[in-house]
Amino acid sequence: MDQDEQDRALPIANVSRIMKQILPPSAKISKEGKQVMQECVTEFISFVTGEASDKCHKENRKTVNGDDICWALSSLGFDNYAEAIGRYLHKYRQAEREKINHDKKYENPHINRAPPPPLLLSRVTRDKVENPPPSPPNQSG
Amino acid sequence: MDQDVQDRALPIANVGRIMKQILPPSAKISKEGKQLMQECVTEFISFVTGEASDKCHKENRKTVNGDDICWALSSLGFDNYAEAIGRYLHIYRQGEREKINHTKKYENPQNQTQINRAPPPPLLLSRVENPPPTNQSG
To answer: Do the chains contact at B27 and A118, CB–CB below 8 Å?
Structure first.
């Protein structure tokens, strides 16, 4: 993968590994299946980030933060994602506060924050057949 | 990032880089913004792949391919993504066929090792999704 291509995509090995996590053990993924997902997920990041950026611009802020991402997901119709990510953000901030408190208490620079647990949204959401995330909405003229 | 976290996520540097591509030059991204997107996009892959896997299972197939991903996107309501990815897949397959033809034509081992398929152009779906309002039909 040349530098230009690398700059605009996620590593296909990582994409593939994540796909494998939800597949049955005997399943395989074709090369084109991985590439199609790689392209799709790169686009998803751009789509959500673009929406968040518009909000920041309107509010004269320069830094896109977690709340902006949550808002963008909801704005684009990804309500289930916005809810789950909101819970993740809450846990993330709790962990950050605990880290600060712990550092203050012991002043030990070697402490590492434990990562929040994975969302497992895909299992929760897929059980609710009636609530699939909608496609990005078309703007009306 | 420990191995367990790495196994279940995409590299945050790459996620950040892709986010930057669509932001104005002066914009910044907070660490939590990147981490949220990292988590969200990992979940998206699992969600779509799970749907594709169900289809393969029903059809007694073991290999998830590009068409299955396209179908899953449409099945889950991501119709715009499915359309754009379908176009990408078409271009991808054309590229693969041209590569095969070129290899057959010259049958030169040295040439073979040097042939690189040009990557399909990026989808730019995110920009297409947000054209000027006057271009939109109701």
So the answer is: no
List of chain A residues whose C-beta atoms are within 8 Å of the C-beta of residue B53: 22-24, 27
Q: Is residue A104 part of a domain?
A: no
Number of domains in chain B: 1
Residue B30 φ then ψ, to 5°: -75, 160
Question: What is the maximum alpha-carbon separation in chain B?
Answer: 55
**Residue B132, Ramachandran bin (φ over 0: left; ψ between -120 and 50: alpha; else beta):** beta
Its domain, for residue A1, covers: 1-45
Determine, for residues A10 and B8 on separate chains, whether the beta-carbon distance falls below 8 Å: no
- Tell me the HSE value of B35 on the side-chain side, using a 13 A CA sphere: 20
Chain A residue whose CA is closest to B117 = A1
Confirm whether A29 is domain-assigned: yes
Q: What is the pLDDT of residues A20-45, one digit of tens each?
A: 888 999 898 998 899 899 989 898 99
* CATH number of domain containing A35: 1.10.20.10
Confidence class for position B50, pLDDT limits 50, 70, 90: very high
